[in-house]
Specification:
The structure is a single chain. The chain is of the alpha/beta class. It contains six helices and 13 strands. It has a single domain, classed as Glutaconate Coenzyme A-transferase, CATH 3.40.1080.10.
């Protein structure tokens, strides 16, 4: 049995270098890898490309998740669907301090899934005839225009699970199951943080969302902020 558990989030992300392309799970705190993001922030990694649904989250005046990385100028480019999630991203973008590749949410999910599934490209109707289609190959299928989209690749995927066993089988809950399972399959190295880590054999096989073969490293999250509840 391979034990993939690391002692800390800092240890798990220690080899993430400046300029890395990283996928970050999300969709609310149920799916945000808070501890891995916090460790990356403390490490001081810069010039990264972020692939995520949004560049952080906001509740009232509080911005959390990926927002601190953007505020500190650590991010070179954001690839995602909802840049308006934080005020700080808009300010950075308007000032020309961060690049943006806007991708419709369903297309974002499919581009990530395509990489993990070995699909070289696919045609999608969303965005056809708009600015999002500029520079992209288009094709008429059954009388309608489609855009050719390519898979999204990443050096690392930071994912958040509810539970993991020591082999790397992952269970998500709530909106954590939206992007995390797709990202876990799509990166060269997948690092998972979990609220609870159990011994091999303790998870009901029928509840596992991400099989261990897709997970390279596991860490038990050190701290989870619950102030939003």
């Amino acid at each position: 049995m391979v034990n993939k558990v690391y002692k800390s989030s800092a240890e798990a992300i220690s080899d993430v270098k400046d300029g890395a392309v990283i996928m970050f799970g999300g969709f609310g705190l149920a799916g945000i890898p808070q501890n891995l993001i916090r460790a990356l922030y403390k490490k001081g990694t810069r010039n990264i490309t972020v692939i995520s649904n949004n560049p952080g989250s906001r509740l009232g005046d509080n911005e959390y998740g990926l927002a601190p990385l953007f505020k500190e100028g650590r991010v070179r480019k954001f690839i995602g669907s909802y840049p308006a999630a934080t005020k700080s991203f808009k300010e950075l973008y308007d000032a020309g301090m961060v690049e943006l590749e806007l991708v419709p949410q369903g297309t974002l999910a499919e581009r990530i899934r395509a990489k993990g599934s070995g699909i070289g490209g696919f045609y999608v109707k969303t965005g056809a005839g708009t600015l999002l289609a500029e520079g992209k190959e288009t094709r008429a299928i059954n009388g309608e225009q489609y855009i050719l989209e390519y898979p999204l690749e990443a050096d690392f995927a930071f994912v958040k699970a509810y539970k993991s066993d020591r082999c790397g089988n992952l269970v998500y809950r709530y909106t954590g199951a939206n992007f995390n399972p797709l990202m876990a399959m799509a990166a060269a190295v997948t690092i998972a943080e979990a609220e609870e880590v159990v011994d091999a054999g303790e998870l009901d096989p029928s509840t596992i969302h991400t099989p261990a073969i897709f997970v390279d490293r596991i860490v038990k999250g050190e701290r989870y902020d619950r102030w939003y509840e």
